[in-house]
Every structure is written in C-alpha cells, then in structure tokens.
Amino acid sequence: MVDSVVWDIGYLVSAALFIFGIKRLSSPRTAPQGNRLGAYGMFLAVLVTLVKMYSEGIIGFELIAAGLVLGTIIGYIMATTVEMTEMPELVALFNGFGGGASALVGLSEVLKRLQEGKIPDAGIELYATWIAIGLSGIVGWVTLTGSLMAMGKLRGGFYIPFTKKDDRGRRKWVSFPTWGPPWLNAVKGAILISCIALIGLTIQDPENYDYIYSLVGLSCLLGVLFVIPIGGADMPVVVSLLNSMSGIAAAFTGFVIGNNVLIIAGSMVGAAGLILTFIMCKAMNRTLTAVLFKSFGGGGRESVTRTKVGSDPEEVAMVCDGISKCVIIPGYGMAVSQAQHAVKEFADLLESHGVEVSYGIHPVAGRMPGHMNVLLAEASVPYEQLIEMDDINSELPETDVALVIGANDTVNPVARTGEGPLGGMPIIDADKARVVVIIKRSLSVGYAGVDNDLFYDDKTMMLFGDGKKMMNELNSSIKEL
Amino acid sequence: MLTTATLVASITVFVLAIFLGFELISKVPPTLHTPLMSGANAISGITIVGALILSNVEFNNGNPGTASWLAFIALVMATINVVGGFMVTNKMLEMIAGKKRGGN
Fold first, then answer.
1. Is ipTM over 0.85?
2. Which CATH code is given to the segment(s) A313-480?
3. Domain residues of chain A, as ranges?
4. Is B92 close to A87, i.e. CB distance below 8 A?
5. pTM of the model
6. Contacts with A263 from chain B: Cβ below 8 Å
C-alpha cells in the first residue's frame, strides 16, 4: 500500500502541467508546446490513476482497457480524417463528449451508491455529494445536447438517410432549424429552476429514481432549447461558452469523486473558457447576453427581389491587369469550396505582375475565429499577408481591387447603420476599394439573413459560381492575358 | 468519507482555480482562438479520471450492471475527447506554425 501522498503529488504535477499548457496556448510562439504540456499532464493523470488502482488491487480491468482502447481509436480516426472545413464541428462534438462524460460519471456514481445502499445519512456528506452530482449532471447534459445542436448548426443542416439521391448523388438536405419565440427564454428559466428544485428533491428522497431521470431529461432538453434560438453566425461564441461549461462539469465531478485534479483543471478551463468567450464577443462587438438571449439570424429572412448581372472571369481578369494593390477577403464559402489553394495561386499570379496582395481577415470569418488563418496557412500563404480587420480597413481606400470570396455578412455595409441583426458588427470596408469582385454562388442572404447592398453597387462585379471553380477560371483568364 | 474539513478544502481549491483561470489568459490573437478553445476542451476531458475509477469493477461475464456500463460509456467519450482534442489542436497549431516559417 503506497501512501496516498504519492498520488496527490502526481495529480498536482499534472494540474501544474495544465496551467502551463493553457498559459502557453495563448501565445503563438509557445502554443504547440502548450498543447504538448497539456497532453503530458493528461497522460500523467491517467497513469497515476491506473497505477493507484493497480497498487490498491484492481477489481476488473476489462471495462477500463476496452474503454481506453476504443476511445483512443475513435478519437485518433476522427482527428486524422477531419477536413479543415469540418474542424469547428469536430471541436463542438469533442466538447459535447467531455460534458457528457462528466454527466455520465455523476449518474454512474449515483446508481452505484443506490445499488450498494451507500446513501450517506442526512448531513454534510449527503448535501455536498448530491448537490455536486446534480450540478455536474445539469451542466454536463446541457453541454452534451447543446454541443450536438451547435455541431448541427455549424454544419448548417444534415442529409436525411434513405431518401432518394439527386443527380449529384446527394440525399435530401434539411437545414438545421433556428427557432426562438420571445417566450422561450421564460421556458428555459423555468426548466433551469425545475432542475435545481429536482436536486433538492433528490436530497429529500435519494432513492427515488424518477427524480434522477427527470433531472437527466430536463437538462438534456435545456441544452437543446439553449442553442436552438441562436443563429449559426454566433456558434463560435456558443461553442466557447459550452467549452467553459464542460470544464465546470468536470470540476463538479471532481467534488463527486473527491479528486483535486478534476477540480483544478475543470474550474480553470471553465474560467479561461469564459474569458475566451468574452474576448470572442468583443471581436464581434456583441455582448454575451445579446448572443444568448436575442435570436439573431435565421428567422425572418428578407426575400431577395433585386437582381444583378453577373460578370465573367475574363472581365475580372482584365480589371485585375495593371493594378497595384489587391485585398482578398475570404469567408466561409472559401472553406466550403476548398478554394484556398486556388486563391493562393491567384495571389501568386498577381504578385508576379508586381501587384501588392494582402488578405483581410474578419475576426468571425468562417465558423470559428481563426478559421480563415488556418485554411490559408494550409495553402502556405505567408503569415505577414494575413491582416486583421482594423489594419486592413485603413488600407482599403487605397486598394484597387477587393476580392471577396464566399463572404457576405462580414462585408455588409448595412452593419454601419447600427440597425437590424447585423447592426453594430464591425465589418471589413470592402466597399471602399475602387472595384469590388465578389465570388458567390448566388445573391442569397448570409447567415444573418440580411440582404447586402454591396452586391448591387455599380463598382461591384459578381462572379456567380462555386468558389474554387470560379477562382480557377479567373486564374486561367489571367494567364491568357 | 467526506468531512466538512475536506469539503472546505475542496471548495477553496475550486475558487482559487477559478481565479487562476481568469488571470491565465488576457490577450489572445484571433488566430489562436480556435486552438486555445480546442486545447482547453481537451483538458476538460480530465473527467476521464472519474470514468476510470468508476470503470474499475468486476466484469462479471459481461454483466457488470447499469452503473458500470454508464461509466464505460463515459470512459469512451472522455478518451475520445482527450485523444482527439489534443491531436486536433496539434494539427491546427502545426498549420499555423508552418505558415510562420514562411510556407510548407
């Protein structure tokens, strides 16, 4: 029997590694090292737990071995096969798994105690343990269902299996609903209060399974209702908040099993995740309350009645001939069509003609902050050419051509009026450039559901079509000049 | 056995760690928002420790009981969260680092 101090020291080292890991993850130079420190900390925590169980006499290793192997294989496959465009959905999914795991640990602990009749007598232990289990359950289940909803919203919708395939081999596509009448907030509040009341009831009557399963059901429902009114454009903030919640769930689980490393790591992630959520809200010039409780996007879409004649790549190629400065503004459409390599080729072609090329990156372009940076990095675009919004906006008035690829809301001038769903959101001033080229599939509205005046501007040339296809056609037109 | 003393100690740790988390990050460049979120998310998979402890049960020829099956599912989910989370974060950071070196 080894003194339990040994295990505590092991967990302490692991917690310290997490602290350094998060700290280093927040600076570009040290970030890869920070991630490794976090991974070492996790490995150490698992190792300490296994060795501790071994030294205390393991009861059964089957479930442990099978769980670790199965989880590792699934996690490995998911992480290695993911496309860069699907990265945000995967982060949301992993986050949901983390929250779900915490909730399940709490539920498992409760059932185990009930089975073995180890319900503590009324007193500090009963109150503390049952409140901790209840809270880790609420937060955990909300994180699980909320993250799954967020994943669906980030994806935009899903294919219904077993329906007839169309000529492109796709099944019926259903877009993910965004729904939120004003009374929904009251319903959410009522459910939350009921959940807390249920924790009280389980303390009064710990052996009543109905209370426990009602708590699970209501928490799951709360997670769904929490995310359903929030538009896809706000999902990064929601995922970040859910990430914070999965940390808190882990911390409560720490109280349940009486383990400090869970409490430290969980609450630290919870707090750091909340700070990150605020940083992201600030980048979008929105408050967290506005994101969470005022529905944005999706609902009440304006129908587009105006028309605009599309240009063809040859015309655009001619406009690009002889210019001196071009700014490329990418959006989610570039990610979807995987056009980043074609965009890089376009930039190379212009640079070979002596054009100064830079990229204007909106903080919420794509479906995750930094989404565009990662994609363009994949196409080996030099870091110095990726310019953040505030800096690029001062350059745009001297820009000859602003090429907008697959972006819409982030360049919509209506945001400056301060009205409507986009009101007050900072935008990239693409309309200040002498010529604006927009590559987009149609004139349809973006995530916020607002029509874009920029499309109809006289100096705007629309290239209607798939981002990658249009970029390739544009590149070959430039080569032919 | 949970006593008042250990509970108070745990709550102290909890509160201090929250303050630590608030102070830990102040300014993060937008490029790192997603990797930081993903990395922090992998760390919240620490609940794997709880899942391991509760999975340490008699297998009983495939009939370990509901509580243990739930712990097993928790273990699989937490392991996916941890392994996948750190790998995906690493993948993203490698791309960002690659671009800092000037491509490839």
1. yes
2. 3.40.50.1220
3. 1-81, 88-293, 313-480
4. yes
5. 0.80
6. 10, 13-14, 17
